[in-house]
Specification:
heterodimer, A: mainly alpha, 2 domains, two-stranded antiparallel ribbon, flat, B: mainly alpha
Chain lengths: 353, 287
C-alpha cells in the first residue's frame, strides 16, 4: 500500500503524564463504553497470537519429549507402520514401530528454496521498482504498478497450477537444460518435468517480488529531490544518480523488505507442495531434484498422520510447525526492528498487497 | 557548457536502464503468463453447467464451490471486518503509551504467521478439541485470524491520515470523543477503511492452507449451519482436481482457478476505486 511508509512525525508521541491523565478525564461515560468495546476488539489479535503459540507448544510437547535432539539430527520423516501391533516407547510416549521424525531435510528444503528465491527476487524487484519510479513518466506508474498488485494477489494455489503446467515444463526444456549443460556440481543432472527445487524457488521468487518491489517503490519515492538535483548538477548520469544517491539512501529499507519477503517464502505452503515433487527423507541430489519444506510437509502429511492411534505423528508435525513458526517469527522480528529505525509507521502487513 | 558524456559512461548508463527494463519485464511477464495460462486451460471447462451443476464425480460444475467461497467471503467480512476495524479504531484513537505499541506489535507479528500453522491449530483445536467438525465457523475463524492484522493496519492508517483540523474543530465545538468519531472521523475515513477491508477479502479468497483442515469439502451446496457441516470452496477444487488424473479434472481445476482469479480481480479493482476516492477525500479536507 502507498502511504504506509511515509515519514510523518508520530502524532501521539509520548504524552506528558499529566496531559494523558487530563485526556482520560475528558472522556464522557459514552466515550468510556465505546473505548471498552473497542479495547476488546484490539485485544483479539494479541490473544489470537498467544493462543496460537500456546496451542502449538501444547500439541508439540509429547513430540518434543519423544524425539529429543534426534529431531534435529534425523533425516527421515517416517510415520512408521501404523497398522502393526505394538509400539515403540521412549520417555513414556508411544509411537508406531519404525516411526522416525526428523526435520533435517525439511529444514534444508525450507532454507535453501527460500534463499534461492531471495537471490533471484531481490535484483529483479529493486531494478524494476527503480525503473518504475525514476524512469517512467508519472502517468504510467499507476497502470504499470497494477502488475505488482496482481502478482501480490494471485492465490498461491494458482501459482502452483501455473508452476506445474506452464513454468515448470518451460524452464525444464530451456533454462534448466542450459544450466545442466554447464556441468557445475549440484547444478547438473536430469531436469525432469520441471517439478523440483529450482522450479519451486523460481515460483517463490515470483511470489515475493511484489513484497520487495512495492516497498522499494515507496522508499525510492521518498528519496529527497534535493539530493537527486545535486547529483544531476554535478554532472552524474541518471544511472550514476541511482547508484550513488538513491541506492545508498534506501539500502536499509531494501534489506528489511527482503527479510519480510524471506519470511513469506519460508512459510509458503501450497505452491511449494504442488511444485516441489514432495520427496521425503532425502536431500535433493541436484537443484532440479524433488524436495520438501516444513510447511509443505505439514500440509501433505496431516491427513495420513491422523490415522496414527498413538497421535505421535500429529504431534511431530506440530513440532515441525513450531520450528517453522520460530524461524518465520525471528526473520519477521528482524525485518520489523530494522525498519523501526527509519520509518515510523512500519511495514505493510499481510500478504504484501 | 555541458560536456558530451564519455562513451563509456553513456554506454553504462544505457546498459543500466536496459537491465532495469529487463527486470520489469521479469515482473510483468509472470503476471500476464499466469492469467493467460489459467484462462487458456479453463476455457474448455467453462459453460453454463459450471454454474448450474455441482462438483459431483467427473462433472464440471462448480456451483457449490462458488457459493461456498462467497459464503466464506461474507463470513470473513463480518468477523474479521468488525474485529479488525474495531481494533484499528482503538489503536488510532484511544490507545496510548506502551499498550498501543504492544498491541500494534503483536498484530503485526500475527500477520507474519505462516498460514499452515493457523490451519493446523484450527484443526487441532476448533475441529477436534471443540468438536466443531469441519465447519463454516472453524473456516471463517481461521481465515479471519489470517487477514485481521491487515484490516487493523489499514483502518489505523486511514484514521491517522485525516487532518488534525477535523479533530480540533470537533473538540472546539465541545463534541465528546465518541460523537467526534461517529460523526466526523468515521465518515471521512470510511473509503480508506473499506478499501483495506476489500483488499483483505481479496487475500482471503485465495487462501487454501488455513481452510484445508478446517472447512473440509462437500459435493452438496453449503448450508448456513455453523457447526458440523463442511463448506466447499474454489481453491480446494483447484488443489484436489490438480492431483486427479484426466484432462477433464485438470480443466475443472483451471476453471475454479479462473473463477477465484475473477473474484480477486473484481475485489482489487473495487479496492482501488474506493482508495482513489479516499485520496481525493483527504486532499479536499486538508487545507
Amino acid at each position: 500500500m502507498t502511504a504506509i511508509l511515509d515519514r510523518r512525525p508520530k502524532p501521539t508521541g509520548a504524552p506528558h503524564r499529566s496531559a494523558r491523565a487530563r485526556r482520560l478525564s475528558e472522556l464522557t461515560r459514552r466515550d468510556r463504553a465505546l473505548r471498552g468495546v473497542l479495547l476488546v476488539a484490539a485485544l483479539v489479535p494479541t490473544l489470537a497470537l498467544i493462543f496460537l503459540a500456546y496451542q502449538m507448544i501444547k500439541s508439540a510437547y509429547p513430540a518434543i519429549v519423544f524425539n529429543g535432539w534426534h529431531f534435529f539430527s534425523t533425516k527421515k520423516f517416517d510415520l512408521g507402520n501404523q497398522y502393526a501391533s505394538g509400539f515403540q516407547v521412549r520417555h513414556g510416549y508411544k509411537a508406531p514401530p519404525g516411526a522416525q521424525y526428523g526435520i533435517l531435510t525439511l529444514l534444508f528444503g525450507t532454507v535453501v528454496s527460500s534463499l534461492i528465491a531471495l537471490v533471484l527476487a531481490i535484483p529483479v524487484s529493486v531494478a524494476g521498482a527503480i525503473l518504475l519510479v525514476e524512469k517512467l513518466p508519472a502517468r504510467l506508474q499507476g497502470p504499470l504498478g497494477v502488475f505488482l498488485e496482481l502478482l501480490a494477489g494471485i492465490p498461491s494455489v494458482i501459482f502452483g497450477l501455473w508452476g506445474v503446467y506452464t513454468l515448470g515444463p518451460l524452464m525444464s526444456r530451456t533454462v534448466f537444460k542450459w544450466l545442466a549443460a554447464l556441468h557445475i556440481p549440484w547444478l547438473r543432472g536430469p531436469t525432469g518435468s520441471g517439478q523440483g527445487l529450482l522450479s519451486a524457488s523460481v515460483v517463490l521468487a515470483v511470489m515475493i517480488i511484489p513484497i520487495i518491489a512495492s516497498i522499494t517503490r515507496e522508499l525510492v519515492r521518498a528519496v529527497p529531490v534535493v539530493s537527486k538535483e545535486g547529483a544531476v548538477a554535478l554532472g552524474l548520469t541518471s544511472s550514476e544518480t541511482v547508484r550513488f544517491v538513491t541506492i545508498p539512501y534506501v539500502r536499509t529499507g531494501i534489506i528489511a523488505a527482503s527479510i519480510l519477503g524471506w519470511a513469506r517464502a519460508l512459510g509458503e505452503t501450497i505452491a511449494v507442495l504442488i511444485i516441489s515433487g514432495n520427496a521425503l527423507g532425502a536431500y535433493p541430489h541436484s537443484i532440479f531434484d524433488a524436495f520438501s519444506t516444513m510447511a509443505s510437509t505439514i500440509a501433505a502429511l496431516l491427513d495420513s498422520a491422523l490415522t496414527d492411534s498413538t497421535h505421535m505423528a500429529v504431534d511431530s508435525l506440530a513440532e515441525v510447525g513450531l520450528v517453522l513458526l520460530a524461524v518465520t517469527m525471528i526473520t519477521n522480528f528482524g525485518g520489523r526492528l530494522l525498519t523501526r529505525r527509519f520509518s515510523d509507521a512500519g511495514l505493510p502487513v499481510g500478504r504484501g498487497v | 557548457m555541458t560536456q558530451p558524456l564519455s562513451r563509456r559512461r553513456s554506454f553504462s548508463d544505457r546498459l543500466f536502464w536496459a537491465g532495469c527494463g529487463l527486470a520489469f519485464l521479469l515482473i510483468a511477464a509472470p503476471a500476464v503468463s499466469v492469467l493467460i495460462s489459467v484462462f487458456h486451460q479453463a476455457l474448455p471447462a467453462i459453460g453454463w453447467s459450471t454454474f448450474t451443476q455441482r462438483t459431483v464425480g467427473s462433472g464440471i460444475g462448480l456451483q457449490n464451490a462458488i457459493l461456498g467461497s462467497l459464503l466464506l467471503l461474507a463470513g470473513v467480512a463480518v468477523v474479521a471486518g468488525t474485529v479488525g476495524i474495531g481494533a484499528g479504531v482503538y489503536l488510532a484513537e484511544f490507545a496510548t503509551g506502551r499498550s498501543e505499541k504492544v498491541l500494534r506489535f503483536f498484530s503485526e507479528v500475527l500477520a507474519g504467521m505462516p498460514s499452515i500453522v493457523i490451519g493446523y491449530i484450527g484443526y487441532v483445536t476448533l475441529v477436534i478439541e471443540f468438536h466443531w467438525g469441519y465447519s463454516l465457523l472453524a473456516a471463517v475463524i481461521a481465515l479471519s485470524v489470517l487477514v485481521m492484522p491487515y484490516i487493523v493496519k489499514t483502518t489505523e492508517v486511514a484514521l491517522r491520515q485525516l487532518p488534525t483540523a477535523l479533530r480540533e474543530g470537533a473538540a472546539g465545538l465541545g463534541m465528546p470523543r465518541s460523537s467526534t468519531l461517529g460523526r466526523v472521523l468515521m465518515p471521512a475515513a470510511t473509503p480508506g477503511i473499506m478499501s483495506g477491508l476489500i483488499v483483505a477479502l481479496a487475500i482471503s479468497t485465495g487462501e487454501l492452507a488455513p481452510l484445508l483442515f478446517t472447512a473440509g469439502f462437500t459435493d452438496s451446496n453449503p448450508s448456513l449451519q455453523l457447526f458440523h457441516h463442511p463448506v466447499p470452496y474454489l481453491t480446494n477444487v483447484i488443489f484436489t482436481d490438480l492431483s486427479l488424473p484426466g484432462a477433464r479434472a485438470h480443466a475443472t481445476a483451471a476453471a475454479a482457478g479462473l473463477l477465484s482469479l475473477i473474484i480477486l480481480i473484481v475485489l482489487i479493482a473495487l479496492g482501488r476505486l474506493v482508495a482513489g476516492r479516499a485520496r481525493r477525500n483527504t486532499a479536499r479536507m486538508s487545507l
